[in-house]
Specification:
Order of helices and strands: EEHHHEEH
Low-confidence stretches: none
Number of strands: 4
Number of helices: 4
Largest sheet: 4 strands, antiparallel
Distance between the termini: 30 Å
Shape: elongated
Structural class: alpha+beta
């Protein structure tokens, strides 16, 4: 399966549960693997036949910055929802979000979520 890969997207935002965290801007580092067919773009060499990487990055940063989430798990879910909504051709997304330097003994802490478009359709129909 084809994929678009974005590694190390830095998003500066308010994030965290503690009062002191709500008063500062902290960096988050995002890695995205977006599964979609790249066959048409690989043949045509035209931007309109693929997903625009800059737009993916812009949307991902904006939804996190606008929400100022407490949890990086929630930040990841916001990005997943926004990208699936914006890009109907996306089949699945794996997102990792790391919060660097928040734990002195670790380079970063983080989470990874992976969702498939049909997972979203299933959960929506169950509600």
């Amino acid at each position: 399966m084809d994929a678009i890969i974005i590694e190390g997207l830095k998003v500066d935002t308010v994030v965290g549960c503690f009062n002191w965290e709500r008063q500062i801007i902290q960096p988050l580092m995002l890695d995205l693997t977006i599964r979609t067919s790249l066959e048409q773009a690989s043949n045509s060499d035209e931007l309109e036949d693929t997903l625009n990487y800059a737009e993916i990055c812009e949307i991902s940063a904006k939804v996190i910055q606008d929400a100022q989430p407490k949890l990086i798990e929630h930040a990841a879910k916001l990005v997943l929802n926004a990208l699936f909504t914006t890009f109907p051709a996306v089949e699945s997304i794996m997102i990792s979000i790391r919060k660097p330097a928040i734990i002195p003994q670790a380079n970063s802490v983080g989470i990874r979520l992976e969702r498939h478009r049909n997972d979203l359709c299933s959960s929506a129909s169950e509600q």
